[in-house]
Write a structure and sequence with these properties.
The chain is an alpha/beta fold. It has 16 helices and ten strands. It has a single domain, classed as Bacterial extracellular solute-binding protein, family 7 (D-Maltodextrin-Binding Protein, domain 2).
Amino acid sequence: MKRTFVLSLFIVLAVSLLCSPAFAGKKDPLANWKTKFDYSKAEYTYILSNISHPVIEGVAVGYNIRDALWKKSNGRIYVDYRPLAQLGGEKDVISKLKIGAVQGMLASSVASANIADRLGLVNLPYVIDTFDKLDQFRNDPELWGPYSNSAQAAGLLVPDITGYGLYGWATTTPVRTLADAKSVNFRIAQAPVNADFYKAWGYKFTVLPWPDVPQALQTGVINGLDHTAIVCNITKKFTIAKYFTEVNYAQGLFLHLVNKRWFNKLPKDLQKIFLEVIAEESAKTRDLTRKQHDAQVAKAKAAGVEFFTLSAADRATLVKEAGPVYAKWGKKIGADYLEKVRTKLGSK
């Protein structure tokens, strides 16, 4: 009786707490992207994961694919999209993706480099460093083909790619030149290729998971953040780091990864529709990302963030100092392939 009374009291208190004003005021962060159709009778469900918020165009593409694929497949495929790390961190989701517990993932380019060495190509400095080069890379079968097929050994397909802007340095002190950067401790992503070129550049850096970044910035553990202006502005990093150096050495990208076994089980007509929709929506999103970059930079400047652009001489220095990294990763990626990419994109 006593245990029953205690349990009943606990339930009453829990319900009261959930109904309190503090909880009632909580807004669903994904309310604007709710499904507007009945997917209960879909023949196939495609669980798609991402760690970020769909206010970023490269993340919102998951919902656009959901709606377009539902329409074009006449309700046969439902994309159960889970952004905001609902299914866990990228490392955990990649493991689930490989075994088929999750069927798809919009994985960051820095995390993807841990799946196959060739996927690290897009992180190399000044190789695919502009929006135009990204489109050229994606639309050239000679360049895109070897890249998109490189994860097949892990049981994954890479049908397309979207992004979240151009990488630079958000800092708490002005970095106008490479000399200024020597005094900064940069947070970089957990990717081997990024660590390699930061070592080659001779800058101090700390590898930190993304959730640890706000506290590290606030406490001064780091005073620089290697990321894009889109993400820095949207996630309020500019409230602490009020300077941004447009290094533009690479782009933040989301690689659309698909479990190959799941894809192969789809009927041929749905395979075709599936790939067509991903390609169409990804292309639209790459264009939207260009516009979002310009809009977020303008908003940040209006809010008082000061932007700097590296000189051509400083950029040339970064390319020169990255020489050993191109050589090392050329062996991993394929030296001839890397040479072809850099030559065709004018990145040499």
